[in-house]
Recover the amino acids of this structure.
């Protein structure tokens, strides 16, 4: 898929945002949006999608370790329903069970507990991880398809 993709890590207080370049090669953190009031969050994300000329929005779905929908996943699903109502691009859900823990690990490696974290830093990194995972999956699918096209049986 050519075009920018935006990934969101939706929390109760903040929404971490990450964006890729139009070719899906590089990923950059794109800030944090306050989750409340919801109308303002939706308007901000709508503006960001338009400014970045995004063709897709990914939203991390926080499933339980068993892969089930808990209370947080239900809140995210409600937010996604509202988001789909204001965007003109597709919104896809992505399993994000381990992204916050991985984001915490990355921050710990960067400076441990000595460095003061800014609010939303974990959310922003989690969004970046969601997007990187998606892009890696897309590239692998493209490579498989190209290999199958080059080697017909």
């Amino acid at each position: 898929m050519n075009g920018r993709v935006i990934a969101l890590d939706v929390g109760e207080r903040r929404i971490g945002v990450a964006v890729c370049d139009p070719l899906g090669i590089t990923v950059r953190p794109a800030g944090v949006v306050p989750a409340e009031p919801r109308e303002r969050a939706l308007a901000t994300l709508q503006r960001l999608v338009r400014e970045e000329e995004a063709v897709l929005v990914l939203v991390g779905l926080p499933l339980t370790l068993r892969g089930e929908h808990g209370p947080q996943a239900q809140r995210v699903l409600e937010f996604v329903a509202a988001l789909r109502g204001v965007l003109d691009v597709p919104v896809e859900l992505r399993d994000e069970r381990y992204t916050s823990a991985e984001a915490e690990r990355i921050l710990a490696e960067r400076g441990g507990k000595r460095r003061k974290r800014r609010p939303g830093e974990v959310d922003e990194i989690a969004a970046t991880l969601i997007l990187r995972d998606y892009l890696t999956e897309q590239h692998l699918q493209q490579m498989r398809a190209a290999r199958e096209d080059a080697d017909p049986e």
In short: Residues 12 and 35 are 6 Å apart (CA to CA).
